[in-house]
Design a protein that fits this description.
Chain lengths: ~300, ~325
């Protein structure tokens, strides 16, 4: 008797089995985990080597790579390796938070739009179309450069280091939710017709319950893929803004802001420009590999490799 | 068709009006205002002067009033003066637009041709190292920061090899050679960055078409694979790809902000950045509205292209 073979397998287990076979996706996930762990251990590296990625040391400007400064030091004598780790902390976490924020907003708007239909749907979808056809990068630049005191924030808050960080997270959330909203709306329209949703509504479940328990969990699969891929876009957007000087402000650092600094030094110290860009490229490629792997693993129609 | 175009154009116009207000309001929230900037240049200004100027420029009136003022002038064809360059906005926008179109249209054409070719090859060579190599190339294009790629190309071709200028506009006396040498690096940057997405679309579309029954039938009839691919598969596979390309055309006019900035190319993208950073209200507004109008126009164009190419699909995306 083969009771074992008939044991039910959860859909997530099947998806994991499919993902496990995708070497590119696994490599991407591993690389990302490695980069995240390395960048989070920036303080440990600094303490261990006795170097700093923040404090200027004008006696050791442009030091070559040594046992102490693994990748040398930059134009202000700061340790390049430590700065790359700190920059990674900023860039990668902004990528994660910005993508998550956009997906949460998108899921909310999409599910409400698809569930209530009618006038709510019309208004929200017109708004989505409106957002989609905005010139993204110029609007991002304007939002990043806005004078927050004109919106009622205190100037102490604006000068604090975390304001620059959160501002980027908020603006990529504000501009990035449209794709997920459309995805979730489409799934919600289909799910709202299904028997289990009708049954829940017939029993008098309130809308937020039906949405939260029955609809969103069943519509979440494409959102996971979209969020993963959005991480890459957010990292690129942040690096562009910081490069233009409206993103992460010193003394905080990100890979993009390191590049902005390195542009003028390209002839004398090219490595200062090469490392941060390479790390952006590698992490975004890794994210895209993972996103594609998830897509293939989640979609049963896709061909097994 | 005419009715469809008219209703779409009317819709786009309403959206454009709404956007002009949003952009107007956003720029109003940028640091400083025109009077602050004038004051910084003149240490002898008295508080009375400031009050007078504020009234003259109307910066303290409510946002709706200012917007209305701007709009009525714009409807009469007066888009105002650039604060930074002291010239009418149109005189600045038109040459920038020309420069941008030279750059982006060249890059766009090259990128489209390469992308369709690579996508088709990847689909035909399925499961081989060729497909994987093309896939990796497409991934790299999608994932690379444009400004960093530009910087690396400058370092390689201008600093180390010294073959090409690091940026700037071609001068008239340099002739045709000057145009090509100044265009080479920014075009290369844009092509690499833009090639990823259409390559992947072309590959996916081609794979789908190659799996269709009529391809199998044509093959069974003994059609040569060259004819099969060019006449039967490619033509059908290109329908969704053309739509994607038409959508991308909206970005031709906004230029490539980061690429133009890195290579000091005097196009719209760079102009938009300068106008925003320099608090040049009128200039930034007109540039951004122009860009938005181009995106809306490209959307309509994509819809029309889709229905023209696929006879099964009616206007507005309805299946016939």
């Amino acid at each position: 008797m083969s009771a074992h073979a008939e044991e039910s397998v959860s859909v997530w287990h099947l998806r994991w089995l499919r993902l496990k076979r995708d070497r590119a996706a696994l490599a991407g996930a591993g690389l990302l985990a490695l980069l995240l762990m390395a960048s989070e251990s920036a303080p440990i590296y600094e303490a261990w080597q006795g170097v700093s990625g923040v404090d200027a040391d004008l006696l050791s400007r442009f030091d070559p790579a040594t046992a102490q400064h693994w990748l040398g030091s930059d134009d202000a004598g700061r340790d390049v390796f430590a700065r790359l780790l700190r920059g990674g902390q900023t860039s990668l976490t902004i990528g994660i938070m910005g993508a998550l924020g956009a997906s949460i907003v998108g899921t909310l708007i999409g599910s409400i739009s698809g569930y209530f239909r009618g006038r709510v749907d019309m208004v929200l979808m017109r708004f989505t179309d409106f957002m989609i056809a905005l010139p993204q990068l110029p609007i991002l630049i304007i939002l990043a450069a806005l004078d927050l005191t004109k919106l009622g924030f205190s100037s102490e808050f604006i000068r604090s280091g975390s304001a620059g960080y959160w501002r980027i997270v908020v603006i990529v959330t504000l501009l990035g939710w449209t794709g997920v909203a459309r995805l979730v709306r489409a799934s919600t329209l289909a799910l709202a017709e299904r028997e289990f949703v009708l049954a829940a509504r017939a029993q008098g479940a309130p809308a937020w319950w039906v949405l939260g328990i029955h609809i969103v969990p069943n519509a979440i699969t494409p959102v996971i893929v979209a969020t993963t891929i959005a991480m890459g876009r957010v990292i690129l957007a942040e690096s562009g803004l910081s490069f233009l000087g409206v993103g992460i402000q010193p003394p905080a650092t990100s890979w993009g802001s390191m590049l902005s600094n390195a542009q003028e030094l390209i002839t004398s110290a090219p490595m200062l420009a090469i490392w941060p860009g390479l790390l952006i490229l590698v992490s975004v490629v890794a994210i895209n590999f993972l996103g594609d792997g998830l897509q293939a693993a989640f979609d049963p129609r896709s061909d097994p490799r | 068709m005419t009715r469809f175009l008219l209703s779409r154009a009317a819709g786009a116009f309403v959206v454009l009006m709404a956007k002009s207000f949003v952009i107007f309001a956003l720029i109003g929230l940028m640091p400083g205002d025109p009077v602050d900037l004038l004051m910084n240049a003149n240490p002898d200004a008295t508080p009375e002067d400031i009050a007078h100027l504020r009234q003259l420029y109307g910066v303290d009136t409510p946002i709706f009033e200012r917007y209305w003022h701007w709009l009525t002038a714009a409807v009469h064809g007066d888009f105002g003066f650039s604060r930074l360059q002291h010239r009418p906005v149109w005189d600045i926008v038109i040459p920038a637009l020309g420069n941008t179109i030279v750059l982006t249209a060249t890059a766009f054409t090259i990128a489209t041709v390469i992308a369709i070719t690579l996508g088709t090859i990847a689909a035909l060579k399925r499961g081989t190292w060729i497909e994987r190599a093309i896939g990796l190339l497409a991934y790299t294009g999608i994932s690379i920061p444009a400004f960093w790629l530009g910087l690396m190309l400058i370092y390689l071709f201008a600093v180390i090899l010294g073959w090409l200028p690091a940026g700037g506009m071609p001068r008239p006396e340099e002739g045709i050679r000057g145009i090509f040498s100044h265009l080479a690096l920014p075009v290369l940057t844009l092509v690499i960055v833009e090639i990823g997405a259409p390559t992947r679309y072309a590959r996916a579309a081609m794979l789908e078409v190659l799996g269709q029954d009529y391809i199998r039938t044509a093959r069974a009839k003994g059609l040569s694979s060259r004819r099969l691919i060019l006449k039967h598969a490619l033509r059908n596979a290109m329908i969704p790809v053309v739509t994607i390309i038409a959508l991308g055309m909206g970005n031709l006019f906004s230029g490539a902000l980061l690429t133009e900035t890195i290579f000091a190319w005097r196009g719209m993208g760079r102009l938009i950045l300068e106008a925003i950073m320099g608090n040049d209200y009128n200039l930034a507004l007109v540039c951004l509205l122009f860009t938005t109008a181009a995106i809306l126009l490209a959307n309509i164009l994509a819809d029309v292209a889709y229905t023209k190419l696929d006879p099964r699909i009616g206007l507005g995306g309805r299946r016939k």
